[in-house]
Amino acid sequence: MAEPSRPDQPTRKISFSATPEGVNSRGTVGEMKQALSGFVAARVELASIEAKEAAGFAASKVVHGVILALCGFFIWCLVLAGLTGVLAPIAGKWLADKVAWLPGWCAVIFALAIIHAIVALICVILIRKKPAAPLFELTRQELENDKQWLRKNK
């Protein structure tokens, strides 16, 4: 259903020719550039607004992550202290005849330190490992294809 024309809006004549009546081709190109410029500006502004929202969300996540890491660190320290307290008498009895100079709590702490050092060494080895495939390989290829297409269609 067509809307009735309003007197305050000018009526337009629809033409399917390459150049509308009364407009030269330079005017059309200029209008097209202006429309494209407006389109790009709107997209950039939208991306900017969304990036600010995402940055605020990410900052909140980082703060909560740091708090979580600190809480986890203290929990782990307290668990290790408790484990040391529980295992120290057992280790003291076991080491009494074998190593008289090493108290049980000290042996438990050394054992826990060695376990943590082994885990840290494994993590360092895994961090240094290079990825099997290059990162962002498809994105790099698409960008290269876009560059070639732009050079070709200049």
From TrEMBL:
Region (Disordered): 1-26
Keywords on record: Membrane, Transmembrane, Transmembrane helix
Residue ranges crossing the lipid bilayer per the database entry: 66-90, 102-127
Keyword Transmembrane annotated: yes
Coiled-coil ranges from the UniProt annotation: none
InterPro entries found in the cross-reference section: Phage_holin_3_6 (IPR009937)
Keyword Repressor appears in the UniProt entry: no
Regions of compositional bias (Basic and acidic residues) in chain numbering: 1-11
Protein known as: Phage holin family protein
UniProt source species: Oceaniferula spumae
